[in-house]
Write a structure and sequence with these properties.
Length: about 625
């Protein structure tokens, strides 16, 4: 995995001020150093500058970037962030077409495939990626992103110059482009956050390449087009065939994503998703005479303070123990204390460039830092719940008739702490509703589908386009900020394409949550884990943590220069802090309740201060 950045202007000649623009490239590159601590490179020509930071995983000695290849007298250069899982097949096909290769890395496969087949080659890629390819002959820059948006890619246009980067922070290293936020951005933060509208970078004039899209920039302007979309079609396989194919796709995705020239590990919570990924990895490594490393996460004294609720019915440790005994992995239990959890709230903003999932994010960042001291590649169980219908809102009859995002159905908690001036200037309810209705309208329809199935398809689409993307953003930023590559086998587009069209009665047979996945995983993991009731990523229940956050927020309220003060109501916040939190009623997702609201406000204040954001 890596970090990429650059700029392009068809009207420019950067070589006339080579030192200046090379310095800009270097600053953009250094802003992404955490994404690639092993190597770096840049290219500056008359119309384009490309920068790269590398985390070496495959072909450690020959995969340096930017990488340039020539064909028929024309020059092409790529900077690439990601991992392909069908590299060998693609390379073999290109060799049969007469192509020659100098390395074994996937970077060269993408570049050569693009040179020979053009943009259409992207449709053949199975992996997670974002890249930029400069065609020097035609003066064309091509930016592309993987189908699910696992790897980030942001951009802006300033004075006919296209500026891009793996993370937003790289854009602000370009001269004249500064952090600003307008009412739309504030509506994103306070209405939709920690999610954000797809395509939006929240900061004014910052956009992202949409998942499954290609953006072309040349003399004719800027053009973005989709190369992949979900397609709704009748499901014709029997239940037995559906289970068999799901099982095959899962095993194949995991095995493909184990590819690495360095050791790998898995994140093992003890839930069905991470346990299936872990079991498949462990079995494959055993064939090679190797032992898998696994990691579990929790919080200091959580066993003492844990409170069971409908969203988090049980703790993970007993089930993780069962899996460790089953697969005989080399296992490490990691714990985070209150102070590390609170301090990493700010580092999580540094990593994401935005306020985010509060301690749900800061804890993952802390754990990724710890894991990265021992390994560089981790496979996770992320995305299974969105694909197979694992969240509570898939099974709640009220959601079927509700008219809004199922993971954030009530804005009251968010709005109760905001200032009257801010509330009067923002139509948060209208903004959120418009975002929801836009996505519902985009849902790929299936002719003849019942009203109930059509609604389930809408809910599934919302989860794939919104909730899953938020979690993928979290995983990418937390892992890459720590120099760790996190892979997500469930996000294999083949799995998503197939399961998307599986009817609900096959996904959840006899009302069994994620019944299809559990049936496909039979024999891989013990039944007590396979049929365990869903419990999400852990959070702390220590009341001292909430007190720590509250005191920090009170300190901010006493600072007349705190940037968040004009946006919130001090009296409302003090009243909120004096009221015991309800951990069982989240305002976002399954985990973000009272303490996470306090943490989110702390992050917003830090974000406004750190980036010196101008409100416009």
């Amino acid at each position: 995995m890596c970090g990429i950045a650059g700029f392009c202007s068809i009207k420019a000649d950067y070589t006339k001020e080579y030192q200046k623009w090379n310095h800009v490239l270097d600053k953009m590159k250094q802003a992404l150093k955490h994404r690639g601590p092993d190597d770096e490179g840049e290219l500056l020509s008359s119309q384009v500058g490309l920068a790269h930071r590398r985390l070496s995983i495959i072909d450690l000695s020959r995969g340096s970037q930017p990488m340039t290849r020539e064909r028929a007298g024309c020059s092409y250069t790529i900077v690439y962030n990601g991992e392909l899982y069908n590299t060998s097949e693609l390379r073999d096909n290109l060799i049969r077409m007469g192509c020659l290769f100098k390395t074994h890395c996937d970077t060269e496969v993408i570049l050569v495939g693009y040179i020979v087949l053009g943009v259409e080659f992207i449709k053949q890629l199975n992996g997670i990626f974002s890249f930029a390819i400069w065609d020097d002959n035609s003066g064309t820059l091509c930016l592309a992103r993987d189908r699910l948006g696992v790897k980030p890619l942001f951009y802006t246009v300033l004075n006919d110059t296209l500026i891009f980067g793996s993370e937003i922070k790289a854009l602000f290293e370009y001269p004249g482009f500064t952090p600003r936020i307008d009412q739309t951005g504030l509506s994103e933060i306070f209405g939709l956050g920690p999610a954000r509208s797809y395509g939006s970078g929240v900061f004014k004039d910052v956009s992202e390449i949409l998942p499954g899209h290609v953006l072309i920039y040349n003399n004719s302007g800027l053009h973005e087009a989709a190369y992949w979309n979900l397609i709704s079609a009748p499901h014709e396989d029997s239940y037995a065939e559906t289970v068999e194919k799901t099982s095959y796709l899962l095993k194949d995705a995991v095995i493909r994503q184990m590819i690495s020239d360095i050791p790998i590990c898995t994140f093992l919570s003890g839930g069905v998703d991470s346990s299936l990924v872990t079991a498949i990895c462990a079995n494959e490594l055993k064939k090679q005479g190797k032992q898998l490393e696994t990691y579990s996460f929790d919080f200091v004294d959580n066993a003492k303070h844990f409170k069971s609720n409908s969203f988090q019915p049980s703790q993970d440790r007993p089930f993780a123990d069962i899996m460790v005994d089953q697969v005989k992995s080399h296992h490490t239990y990691l714990e985070c204390d209150n102070l590390d959890l609170a301090d990493n709230l700010y580092h999580a903003v540094d990593a994401r460039d935005l306020p985010n999932m509060a301690d749900v994010e800061s804890s993952l960042l802390y754990f990724c830092k710890r894991v990265a001291t021992r390994v560089k590649v981790a496979l996770t169980g992320e995305c299974a719940d969105e694909i197979f219908g694992g969240y509570p809102w898939f099974h709640n009859p009220e959601v079927m008739t509700a008219d809004g995002f199922p993971w954030s159905r009530n804005l009251a908690t968010r709005k109760q702490l905001l200032s009257d001036d801010l509330l009067s200037s923002l139509d948060l309810d209208g903004y959120v509703q418009a975002a929801y209705e836009k996505s519902v309208a985009e849902t790929p329809r299936l002719y003849g589908e019942s009203k109930t199935e059509a609604r389930r398809r809408e809910i599934a689409y919302l989860n794939l386009k919104w909730f899953m993307v938020t979690l993928l953003d979290r995983m990418d930023r937390c892992s890459m900020y720590s120099g760790l590559e996190a892979r997500v086998p469930f996000a294999d587009h083949r799995i998503i394409e197939y399961v998307w069209n599986v009817p609900w009665e096959l996904k959840s047979p006899n009302g069994v949550v994620k019944g299809l996945l559990r049936e496909a995983g039979k024999g891989l993991i013990p039944d007590e884990v396979l049929y365990r009731k869903k419990s999400p990523y852990p959070k702390t229940y220590n009341p001292d943590y909430e007190k720590l956050l509250g005191n920090r927020l009170l300190d901010i309220l006493t600072d007349p220069n705190a940037p968040i003060r004009p946006l919130v109501d001090e009296k409302k916040i003090r009243s909120f802090l004096s009221t015991p939190s309800d951990y069982g009623k989240p305002w976002y997702g399954q985990l973000m309740a009272g303490p996470q609201m306090i943490a989110y406000l702390l992050q917003i204040n830090y974000w406004l201060e750190k980036y010196r954001i101008t409100l416009v």
